Records
---
Amino acid sequence: MSKISVLRLIAVVAASVALSACMRARTEEVREMATSVGETEGIVVLAKPQSDGAGTEAKFLDCVGDSLKSGEHGFKVKNNKEFVNAMFPWFEPSTAPVRAEAIAELMSHEQVARRLDTTGVRYVVWLNGATRKTDGGGSLACGAAPGAAGCIGFGWWEKESDYQATVWDLKQSRAAGSVSADVTGTSAIVGAIVPLPFIARVQGTACNRLSSQLRTFLHGEPVAEIKSASRKN
């Protein structure tokens, strides 16, 4: 096969992959009470404690936290490790309250309330979820020989980023509501001499969608009780 034919084959396959690959994103919001973050009040983003110890990825927590504090109307986001240390031992993974009903009891302790006041945190955003590979297939082989090297084949995989953020109002000792984002994307790599990757950034998209919805939620803008949207890229 001539070099031109190979390049045409690469272009056809690449175009096919680009057209077939997509990301599907959905966000949902449930509001139980009004929210309002004062100028002196802050929030903290924590991984919701799990019985099996497998919590939300640290880089996703950082992504959401950084997104919420950026921009002209960003929030005061407390570093999660600093907050947990300042509130030791009440927000350690093994002792943190896992149900909203436990907030009032926790806040009834004078020492807890005093330490919380020093942190400036009013809202705790509990993040739960993960990014997982859900499917995949194909094969890709690469090799090298004197004067030549390359790859041939086709491989694909699907990942899902499914996260939920539950917002607790520590001042009111109640759960304010929740926001969730579910993003599914198909990635592929085409081997036609040079490997050509087509990557669906599902976790980054989930962070952007969840952070945007959380920002609206915390600012207290009017929203429906349950709002969902989906799109294809």
Note: The CA atoms of residues 135 and 154 lie 15 Å apart.
---
Amino acid sequence: MKKAVILLSGGLDSATTLALAKEAGYDCYALSFRYGQRHAIELEAAKKVAASTGVREHKIIEIDLRAFGGSALTADIAVPKSRSTEEIGAGIPITYVPARNTIFLSFALAFAEVIGAYDIFIGVNALDYSGYPDCRPEFITAFEKMANLAIAATTQPIRIHTPIIAMNKAAIIREGLRLNVDYALTISCYDPDLDGVPCGRCDSCLLRAKGFQENHRADPAQNT
């Protein structure tokens, strides 16, 4: 089986991406990060998703992006709540973490090179989070080009896979349901309480709720 590194946050998108990589026949190695995010409960979700999906290995890397801040997820900045779909899609939201996907993909590239993998999967989405610059197809194409200049192993090209990049939340959930993803294990909230209970009002909670509603399904994690 071909090996692949899967960036796994513990959220709905990355869990679906992992399931799609498994369906494609990859031997999956999951990679998560404790990066100073306020919603670190997602790492417990990532562990559960990785275990339920049967990955070969799951690494959790410690970095601290609080040193830079600049985001509601890594600094003492309020997470936006109760915004409309139009407001969510307008501009770059304060929940954007500067350079996060660049950093995560760089770690994934190092992991891939060590284990002899040439495929990296990341659950970026250019529709629901169109304001995030590091979720754009142009960014992925540019990183993939850089990756192939950066590594010592050159027997075949590195490929960055973004299977859900052009799907809306409803379509992502539909794919996950088809693949029997256990969404009860996932958490998408940007601002859960200390017990990990989703706020139900941040952008991510609202988009998730909308996706389940459009599939006429209840969210098994009650993330509404």
Note: The first helix runs from residue 12 to 23.
---
Amino acid sequence: MPEVEIRPGVRMAYEDHWFGKPWTTPETVVMVHGNCESSRAWAPWVPHLAGKYRVIRLDLPGFGASPAPATYGWSAAELAADLGRFLDALAIARCHLIAAKYGGSVAMQLASDQPQRLLSLCLCGSPVRGSGSGNADAIRSKGVRQWAAETMRSRLGRAASEAQIKWWTDELMGKTDPRAAFGASSARIDMDLEGRLPRITAPTLIVTTQESGLQSVEAVKQYARRIPDARVVVLPGDSFHIAAVEPDLCAQHALQFMAQASKKRP
């Protein structure tokens, strides 16, 4: 994977795909993964997106192929600032931003801090508030892989196959740097993005499920009402990581939404 130094001591790896007509210049989609994941989480989306958009999947600091800086804190604010620096390093002035789970929280922080950078925002199972110390405590006491194994079914839901459960446990989340996993889980405990939502000016698509264990449909609709131009899509199921369990369906919703957002721009 190529990588870029975005500030002293912080490097980010990424994948960059564009399979459309090489003589054209597409809009860019940037994809941000959740805690204990990497750019690999988005792989099933790429065939849907990369014929119409340049698709950049990054590894946040400490995850995937991006090294963990010695003094990193993994707060939404720090990650969002570095996401902005990543866009600067790749000379991306504006983009469509697609994010899941804690990556969506980071995306909301960036969208409120630098609203001019986004063409649209798509959030899949992303919280605006912290959810207590349970994850951080479990990672500290049991280790990343055991924590992932014990929580994977509730994360991916009843519809996920045993093969997907095993891959996400053993090949993706279970291999996460323990310091990054614990750091991001700890940073989320007291997170509160509610006051920032009115500053998100990009057209925003929020995808959730009917029985998400992360937050109720009403809770999602309540925070969506604080975003000036937001739409909520509720899909069947009980996964709170719907981007992973229904990548084809989610990608189609994202494609339609991004196309509509592009048409609305002056």
Note: The radius of gyration is 17 Å.
---
Amino acid sequence: MKNRSSLTILAAAAVLTSLTGCAPQYHQANEKYYLITANKKVNYWQNALRGLSQGSSEMKVKAEMTGPDAYDIQAEHNEFQNVIKSNPAPSGIMVSAADPKTIAPDIHDAMSRGIPVITIDSDAPASDRLFFIGTDNYNAGTLGGQTIAKLLNGKGNVVVYTIPTQANLIERLHGYQNTLEDSPGIKITQTVDMKGDPNVAFDTTRQLIDSKANVQAIVCLEAIACPEVGEILDRNKIGGKLTVVAMDTDQRTLDWINKGVISATIAQKPYTMAYYGLKLLDDLHHHKPNPLISTWAQNSFAPIPTFVDTGSSLVDKSNVGTFSSQNQAAAPQQ
């Protein structure tokens, strides 16, 4: 009976372990995962940090988000190199490739050292990264294009704020362009390279208003642009007179939607990208594909996906309150 009771206890412990996650000994004390971005202080990446922190807490592993405080491609590259050379070596790396050409050699460097790398938010498809997790950016652009077409009733001139070298923004713009082909009365008359600097959006919008340019809508493909657009429109007391479709859910963007200055925004899931990305990266560390560097995207029997779509949605005045409640519910408990 004593042996039987012991076996029962062991079996119960095994079931509990399977239900609650990995056993404590599954992870080693020196395991650490990194998320590298080119602009870590913005609201978008702070939401990603919340997901990363939640995932690391549940999994009992170390995780850190790093990168420059303001948009800086070269600084992101430098930080990637610092992470690769850290001691102990990273267990895995997630990176948002602000400039895929700059980051691709860093990804190759890490993978050559046996460090699994996945891209999140902004992909580097020509690199050695294992797979991409994030928004289907073309679909996000399509959603934005449908929204603009509806709000403009099929007619008007549009100015777009973007960063032309960033892969995710290129895909979003293609989504807008292809969707608006069905609305020949709507033209994208100007595409502005904001260079990752919100002041460019602020100054350009002010110039558009001061010059009384023939513009009926403004589209922001990046999170930091439209809060500045809203500021200028509000100062000039013309909020609501221009159609504005933003990107992401910076608190200022949500405030301008509540006030009727911004029409809508396309919401992504940076929290989910980092939270789920960490779980996938941990699995890659403990069960590395063999070989690590391979053309897995062309292999019908690959052990990994090519793309994990975390989704996107439209937030406007009708549901901004619901979004804010969800955001508050996901906030870390004090």
Note: The chain is about 45% helix and 15% strand.
